[in-house]
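[User] At your convenience, examine this fold.
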Amino acid sequence: MDKDGHETFEEMVGPIDSALERFWLMTARHASQRLGRLKFVAAKRLPFALPLSGPLSHLDSGIRLAAYVLSHDPLLIYTPIGGERPLNSVVAIGRRLASRRAVFLLMPSWTLERPHVVAKLGRDLAWYRESFSLHELIFL
């Protein structure tokens, strides 16, 4: 175990014989961590940057989110929101339902009262209303 209580490379993969092998494993670990951070940033920002149709429109399909369909006709979806870009999950769902009427019940999972979040939320709401006019967003 290292000083933080995490397993070392030797404990996970066995003894490391050379400095080159250690360098390779450290490089792979750092690349994996950076990829994870990039995926996290993409999940927050990508839904707002993608076109609404065309070959690039579904690049946000790997985003994980919680959504509950309460009714199919009319379509009523409950989803928690939060974080720096609270509407990112709503946008990911909304772009797939752009041509259909839908009502989203949005439950903040944390306070949205931080000034920088309120400013982003205002801009995101205006963009969403313009992009998806058939959808209604209700904050609970």
User: Anything to note?
Assistant: The radius of gyration is 21 Å. The longest strand covers residues 75-81. The chain has a mean pLDDT of 80. The CA atoms of residues 47 and 125 lie 13 Å apart.
